[in-house]
Structures are given as C-alpha cells and as structure tokens.
C-alpha cells in the first residue's frame, strides 16, 4: 500500500507515536460488536470495558506485547501528556488473545474531556518471555522508548480509533 | 565543575537576575546526575520563583535546600520557571490582541488539518477494506464454482460394490 494512503500515516499515528513499520501479524480489536478499524469513532460508553483482542502469528511459543495509548492527552491541540498509557499486556501467546497475557498496566477507559482523541493499539513481538516493569505513571509514556528498552523492535501491527466525550459536538461550536 | 557554570549565562529570573545567577554557580553542591527528561517527567510541586530575598540569604542555606528538593541542576529549574511564567492564560502583559489573533488562527488551522486528516484516514481505511473484501469475495466465488462444476465426490469407502459373488 502506498505510504501516503496508509490510514496510520494519514492519521499521523505513524509520526506521532510510531515509526513506519511492516505489518506482519493479524490484530483484531473489538468492543462488543464494534470492530476497531482505523479511524472509526467510538463513544466512551462503548469503550468502558477492555476490548476483545485476538492476534495472529503461528507458534504458541512466540509472545507478544500489546500497548494502548492516547497521544492526544489531555487535548489534541496541546498534547502535553502524550502519550497517556491506557493498557499494557505482555506475554500474549501467538494465535490467542489479550486475556491470555500478563496485564502489567490494567485497562483504563478512555475519558477524553477536550477534543477528539486517537486511541492507538500497538502490537510488538517479544524475543522471548520477559519481565516488563510497569512505568511509574501513565502520562508521558513513550512507545518508541519503551520498545527500545525491552528490545521489542518495530511493531508488527497497529490499529486506532477516535473518541470524544459523550456530549461532544465533533469539534463544532454549538450553533 | 563550578567553573563550567560560571561562564554560562542563565535566562534572567523576573526579579533578580545577576545576583541569583552567580549565587547559583558559586553555591552549587554536588547533585546526583539526572537527565533533563527525568526531571521534566516528575511532577514538580513547587514551581514558584524563589522569594525575593537579599543576595546574602541566597548564598546561604535556603537555596541549597531548594536545589536538593528538586534534585537536579539549578539552571534547569530556572529555565522551567521562566517558561511557566510567560504562558498563563488571561495575562495580556506579553501579548497584544494581534498575537492572540495569530495564535487563534494557528490553532484553528491545526485543528482543521487534524479534521481533514481524520476524515481522509477513515476514508482510506474503508477503501482498503472494500478492496480486500471484494478480492476475498471473488476468490471464494471462484472456489465455489470449481466445486460445483466438477463434483468432486469423496471416494466411497467401506461400501460393498458387488453383492452377488457367492456361487450359491
């Protein structure tokens, strides 16, 4: 797919959170009956509970790490808390799902107050089973640095959705 | 170590520039090495400027205590303090309406760019999905045709073909 057409590039996920990478593993995220495709908009009410995450790969002995971050915290026009870590699960065996992994940082529901935020899921392949330490706080997390710290290499999959507060007007001023 | 800091000119703090600057460089205790990023990441409880005191007190204990509290090189805290004082919303001391209008325009432009990007990204995703699904559909239809055109019945096993072979 042409680089400039890739939704992850157009949506600036590649740029703000990740570097360009090659997708090699399936990543399917769904909140109830809503599948997360790049750029869909979900309401906070739909994302209260952790989504179902199914991953690909082919060998049970390969393990993956899943990260969920908000690069637009607290507001997309002034994201001084970028990135806000919502979820961190490690040691997910290939072909299974997040519920089979180790939840290092528990799932926190998106609750954007200002603006329309992107919520990004990133999947990394681990070199082996590894001990990952939770960061001291959720804000100002850096996915790139985290990947480097734990030798995760480049992502193998990523997907994101948009979310604004329940009574949001899509950024439009009330008429 | 002190000599290095002496030559560096620090951004002036609001009320007392030269006195504090030299005081900091002279009175600089050995601090644990912290990189700037770590310092910026930790929540800083006290971001207020040091109280306006005479140079004598600055040379003494209070400043030393303050620097140990922050746990980082003083010049970093000086720079940080300066940044904060300039950007509080509502203060029009440094900005006139012209600047504000310009800022608003820039913010609006960025917001519009994000909005367009959002729309375009979703459209691209849908187009990709459609293309993918059409391909899958075509593939499945072809497979279906193959199975219907030449009925590939599985070879019958465990069945008797000839039933009348006995002589009696």
TrEMBL record, chain A:
Domain of life, per the record? Eukaryota
A Pfam short name:
PBP
Listed InterPro entries: PEBP (IPR008914), PEBP-like_sf (IPR036610), PEBP_euk (IPR035810), Phosphatidylethanolamine-bd_CS (IPR001858)
> Which PROSITE patterns does the protein's record reference?
PBP
Q: Give the matching PANTHER family.
A: PHOSPHATIDYLETHANOLAMINE-BINDING PROTEIN, PROTEIN FLOWERING LOCUS T-RELATED
Q: Which family does it belong to?
A: Belongs to the phosphatidylethanolamine-binding protein family.
Q: Report the protein name in the record.
A: FLOWERING LOCUS T, REDUCED STEM BRANCHING 8
Q: Which organism is it from?
A: Hibiscus trionum
Automatic annotation (TrEMBL), chain B:
For region Disordered, the annotated ranges are: 1-29, 48-123, 146-168
Q: What is this protein called?
A: BZIP domain-containing protein
Bias kind Polar residues: ranges = 17-29, 82-94, 155-168
Provide the BZIP domain boundaries: 98-147
State the Gene Ontology BP annotations: positive regulation of DNA-templated transcription
According to its UniProt record, where is this protein located? Nucleus
One Gene Ontology cellular component term attached to this UniProt record is:
nucleus
Q: Which organism is it from?
A: Hibiscus trionum
Q: Keywords in UniProt for this one? A: DNA-binding, Nucleus
Q: Record's CDD domains?
A: bZIP_plant_BZIP46
Q: Which SMART domains match?
A: BRLZ
* A single MF term (Gene Ontology): DNA binding
């Amino acid at each position: 797919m042409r680089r400039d057409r890739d939704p992850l590039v157009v949506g600036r996920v590649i740029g703000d959170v990740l570097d360009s990478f090659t997708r090699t593993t399936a990543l399917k995220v769904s909140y109830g009956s809503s599948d997360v495709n790049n750029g869909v908009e979900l309401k906070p009410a739909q994302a209260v509970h952790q989504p179902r995450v199914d991953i690909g790969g082919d060998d049970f002995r390969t393990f993956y790490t899943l990260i969920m971050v908000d690069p637009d915290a607290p507001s997309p026009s002034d994201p001084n808390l970028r990135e806000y870590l919502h979820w961190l699960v490690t040691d997910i065996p290939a072909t299974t799902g997040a519920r089979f992994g180790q939840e290092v940082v528990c799932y926190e529901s998106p609750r954007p107050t200002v603006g329309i935020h992107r919520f990004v899921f990133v999947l990394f392949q681990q070199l082996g089973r590894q001990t990952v330490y939770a960061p001291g706080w959720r804000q100002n997390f850096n996915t790139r640095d985290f990947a480097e710290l734990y030798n995760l290499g480049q992502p193998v999959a990523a997907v994101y959705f948009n979310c604004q507060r329940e009574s949001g007007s899509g950024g439009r001023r009330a008429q | 170590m002190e000599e290095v800091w002496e030559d560096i000119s620090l951004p002036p703090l609001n009320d007392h520039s030269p006195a504090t600057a030299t005081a900091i460089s002279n009175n600089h205790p050995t601090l644990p090495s912290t990189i700037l990023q770590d310092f910026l990441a930790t929540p800083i409880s006290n971001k207020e400027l040091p109280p306006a005191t005479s140079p004598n007190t600055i040379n003494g204990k209070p400043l030393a205590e303050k620097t140990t509290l922050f746990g980082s090189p003083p010049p970093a805290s000086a720079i940080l303090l300066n940044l904060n004082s300039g950007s509080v919303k509502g203060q029009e001391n440094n900005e006139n309406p012209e600047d504000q209008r310009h800022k608003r325009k820039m913010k609006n432009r960025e917001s519009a760019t994000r909005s367009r990007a959002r729309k375009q990204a979703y459209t691209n995703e849908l187009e990709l999905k459609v293309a993918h699904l059409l391909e899958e559909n075509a593939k499945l239809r072809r497979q279906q045709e193959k199975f219907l055109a030449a009925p590939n019945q599985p070879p019958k096993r465990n069945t008797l073909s000839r039933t009348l072979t006995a002589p009696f």
